[in-house]
Amino acid sequence: MAPIASRSLMSYSPDIKILDCTLRDGGLVNNFRFTDTFVKNLYKANVKAGVDYMEFGYKASKDIFDVNDFGKWKFCDEEDIRGIVGTNESDLKISVMSDVGRTDYKRDILKREDSVIDMIRTATYIHQIPTAVEMIQDAVEKGYETTVNLMAVSKVSETDLKAGLEILAQSDVDTIYLVDSFGAFYPEQIERLADMYLEIASKTGKTIGFHGHNNQQLAFANTIQAIRQGVSLLDGTIAGMGRGAGNCYLESLLAFLKNPKYNLYPILGFLSNDMEELKKTGAKWGYDTSYMLTGLMNTHPKSAIKFMDENRTDYTNFYQEVMDIE
Amino acid sequence: MAPIASRSLMSYSPDIKILDCTLRDGGLVNNFRFTDTFVKNLYKANVKAGVDYMEFGYKASKDIFDVNDFGKWKFCDEEDIRGIVGTNESDLKISVMSDVGRTDYKRDILKREDSVIDMIRTATYIHQIPTAVEMIQDAVEKGYETTVNLMAVSKVSETDLKAGLEILAQSDVDTIYLVDSFGAFYPEQIERLADMYLEIASKTGKTIGFHGHNNQQLAFANTIQAIRQGVSLLDGTIAGMGRGAGNCYLESLLAFLKNPKYNLYPILGFLSNDMEELKKTGAKWGYDTSYMLTGLMNTHPKSAIKFMDENRTDYTNFYQEVMDIE
Predict the structure, then answer these.
(1) For residue B217, what is the DSSP state?
(2) CA-based angle A148:A150:A151, to the nearest 5?
């Protein structure tokens, strides 16, 4: 699929929307232990900046995860979100992520009329797609907007990926996400994959989203490439906060897009104040050679996260270790 | 110009060469005050890694710059380079950079037969091209390989740029560099510019190089884009060390290219040992929101470097200041 003509660098595309997942992907850095002040200021900054969606965290099952091990945004109880947003009298929509197999969605996801949540994002591996489809169906019936975030596709064969996408294209989901879980893709691959996703999904009127990781410092570049192909829902996090090497920097994305409704200043203010405060707590993420190596090897960053936690810098040994994993 | 067929992600292009400019662009971070051990280990690592060129620094005039204000790689005296490489019995070629107006090239650049230097890179602004052409002529007559690095082209009109490139295409230079001095370009712009450079330069058999900066975390992505268009001489620095936000990370580039002659391990070893030591001296570079803003505004990073030196984090004020500069 050729680049969409309206995707001009000097203009803007009104169909493009931004989702801030600082709390959700960033929560993987600090076990979701954000102060209420941080979360309130993030919400206010996103509202003022014209960000389209803000993800508060996961809707994890308390039968599986101990509430004492995590901050509240691992679970996103209705009253906790309302404690920040009240009834959310703003244009910002609220999303939560629901992992296949880790969410008691029938019990924990309320009807939309009883919730301030607007969108449920179902995260699934390729082999869990049938369950994901049931979860999407449940969310649609409860009245939500929906996305499905198909993870770790850099490890999936194209044949299986196409088959999975065909099933998702027949589901009730609104948006199918292209996800670069391991920061392994180069822009040329995003170009091909986004075209594949768009071709399959457009047959049934679905839109495509993109969620990148910064292992090879390509999260922003891959997001720009996805935009050129016609992807329209874009994930970012402030200061790139997210697991391991982190995500696409929301501030870069907001500055790149030229939609007049977006305003960079509130995000800059949040960076100066709240993000600087948060960094003092010792939360660490962002590019390192170790993440470059796991990205290169197309593998989960957990070995690099451990390497960083142990303050190791012996990259030669680490490269060997990563090759032994694969 | 369509992407070159041989530029396959799963293969390699033997025409592509890498130039390590850690000492030269990195020297702008610490006034070229590298220890001899650092420089020797860098040379050894580059030789073992199969890097094609290593740039030792600038050939600055001692009439203009005080030798007490800088380390020796600002001047690259012949005996200093020989102190590291001897007679350079390796496949690694040695380059130095010669700035228009800041180099006494007639006096300070020896005949190639009397030097271990293989390549002279002339750095020029658009209005200095006639002088650059004379300097290139001098270097060619002395027997050197040559490049011309046309700086700050993100501030030059396309009409002037084309006219300048036509002059350079008629000169004796081997390679014309596309340079993103301010880290202002997006990959889509690199695609267009690389095509323009290639079209003009190929008429007289010149090749094209690329030198990026990482202000918007796009140095690697822009380098990859340049590769796809047919650019064949690529600058990188270890750990991205370079002025402000730094450059394209040489280790990412080496890992991306699949030429069997390249070997990542010696670079990883250098990162673990020598770069970690150097960081302890307090030398600072790399992405920050302030560099993203100067990149966005297509302006010199010096205001952001000052902002970082003063440990400021008030990005909202800084954004205003950058807009006041422009």
Answers:
(1) S
(2) 135
**Within 13 Å of residue A275, how many CA atoms lie on the same side as its CB?**
28
What residue spans in chain B does CATH classification 3.20.20.70 cover?
A: 17-280
Amino acid identity, residue B297?
Answer: M
CB contact at 8 A, A200 and A169: yes
Mutate to test the interface with B, among A247, A254, A289, A312 (most CBs of B within 10 A): A289
Q: Which residues of chain A have pLDDT under 50?
A: none
Q: pTM of this prediction?
A: 0.97
Backbone φ and ψ for B205, nearest 5 degrees, come out as 75, 20
Residues of B within 8 A of A289 (CB-CB) are 239, 251, 268, 271
Q: B214: nearest CA in chain A?
A: A217
Which pairs from A81-85 meet CB under 8 Å and 24+ separation?
A: A81/A56, A81/A116, A81/A117, A82/A116, A83/A36, A84/A36, A84/A39, A84/A40, A84/A43, A84/A56, A85/A43, A85/A116
pLDDT digit string, tens, across residues B275-308: 999 999 999 999 999 999 999 999 999 999 999 9
Under a CB-based contact definition with an 8 Å cutoff, are residues B220 and B287 in contact?
no
R_g of chain B, CA atoms, integer Å: 19
pLDDT of residue A325: 80
Burial A213-224 (b: 16+ CB within 10 A, else e): bbbbbbbbbbbb
Say whether A268 and B316 touch across the interface (CB within 8 A): yes
pLDDT in tens, A138-167: 999 999 999 999 999 999 999 999 999 999
Q: What ipTM is given for this predicted complex?
A: 0.96
Is B319's CB within 8 Å of A264's CB?
yes
Q: Which pLDDT score is estimated for B296?
A: 97
Confidence of residue B170 (pLDDT cuts 50, 70, 90): very high
A315 and B269: CB-CB below 8 Å?
yes
Per DSSP, the three-state class of A100 is: coil
Look up tokens 């919400």; give the residue.
A43
pLDDT in tens, B181-227: 999 999 999 999 999 999 999 999 999 999 999 999 999 999 999 99
Q: What are phi and psi of B86, to 5 degrees?
A: 60, -125
CA-CA distance, A287 to A271, in Å (whole number)? 18
Residue type present at position A25: D
Q: What is the band of B6 on the pLDDT scale with cuts at 50, 70, 90?
A: confident
Distances (CA, A) of A120 to A138, A210, B120: 10, 16, 59
Considering the segment(s) A17-280 as one domain, its CATH architecture is: Alpha-Beta Barrel (3.20)
Binding-site residues on chain A for chain B (CB distance < 8 A): 9, 186-189, 214, 216-222, 224-225, 228, 239, 249, 251-252, 255-256, 264-265, 268-269, 271-272, 276, 287, 289, 292, 296, 313-316, 319
- Report d(CA A204, CA A200) in Å as an integer: 8
Percent of chain B with pLDDT over 70: 98
**pLDDT score, position A326:** 74
